[in-house]
Amino acid sequence: MGYKVKFWGVRGSIACPSPDHMAYGGNTSCVEVSVGEHVFILDAGTGIRALGRDLMRRQVTSATLLLTHTHWDHINGFPFFAPAFSADFRLRIMAGHLSGKPGGIRAVLANQMENPTFPVPLSAMHGTVSFDDIAAGDTLTFAPGAVVRTAPLNHPNGSTAYRIEYGGVSACYVTDTEHVPGQPDQNILRLIDGADLVVYDCTYTDDEFPAKVGWGHSTWQEGVRLCQAAGAKRLVIFHHDPDHDDTFMARIEEEARKLFPGTIVARDGMELLMG
């Protein structure tokens, strides 16, 4: 197997399955990156449920879950990730925004699955589940030959971006983050430098952004500007606002491609083969 990226959830804030969100999808953030024999899962929004079922169908027995942060739309699919309930499955969970905080990532996920908010506790997951709190900025290595670089993002309560390198191919996952107009984020520019693919937080448009300052998100136009400045090859527009229906998203895709040819608006179920 080479390098594959598949989108299982592309929406931000809240899942919104409806007739107005059929073309682009309504599940929240979850992206699978398969490199060699290793499966990375980026975030655990509602899209992770369908991913879990697919991993079981494919008889995949291990994966690494890389969490950007732990706001609801990025973790509320986790209790429905079926492979973790199987004794034969190994899941390594990593996060970069909770280092030094009591209990770290394990405590957050466990609390989500406690009464009165959820009836099935974390202890019901009979797979081999491990938890690692890293620091945003760390570089991680995985066999066979995968390197994951990380960077801190500008988001309430913190968030971590990831760059997965394998076989001379690189894809970056950069969400959730808020830019400062006219001041490109240097952490992001370093991370996405020359990347083959950049999945970026394009929740808003530049016109919408002034009313959303402080909410922790960016725009598709800023994604274009960053990719152009960093010499990245391809932009994927991601983390769609729930209020942006299919018609709105199609218009964004058309406008973005005029500025940065090859730009794609992420869709649930979309698969990209890299390299």
What does this structure look like?
By secondary structure, this protein is an alpha/beta fold. Helices cover 20% and strands 28% of the residues. It contains six helices and 14 strands. It has helices at residues 48-57, 72-75, 104-112, 186-192, 220-230, 246-259, and strands at residues 3-9, 30-35, 38-42, 62-67, 90-95, 128-133, 139-142, 146-153, 159-166, 169-174, 197-201, 235-238, 264-265, 271-274. The model has no long low-confidence stretch (mean pLDDT 96).
Task: Give keywords.
alpha/beta, 275 residues, Metallo-beta-lactamase, Chain A, seven-stranded mixed sheet, globular
Major sheet: arrangement of strands? 6-5-4-3-2-1-14
Shape: globular
User: What fraction of residues sit in β-strands?
Assistant: 25-35%
Low-confidence stretches: none
Q: How many beta-strand runs? A: 14
In short:
20% of the residues lie in helices and 28% in strands.
Which SSEs are present, and which pair or pack?
Elements lengths: L2 E7 L20 E6 L2 E5 L5 H10 L4 E6 L4 H4 L14 E6 L8 H9 L15 E6 L5 E4 L3 E8 L5 E8 L2 E6 L11 H7 L4 E5 L18 H11 L4 E4 L7 H14 L4 E2 L5 E4 L1
Parallel strand pairs: 3-4, 4-5, 5-6, 10-11, 11-12, 12-13
Antiparallel strand pairs: 1-2, 1-14, 2-3, 7-8, 8-9, 9-10
Helix pairs in contact: 4-5
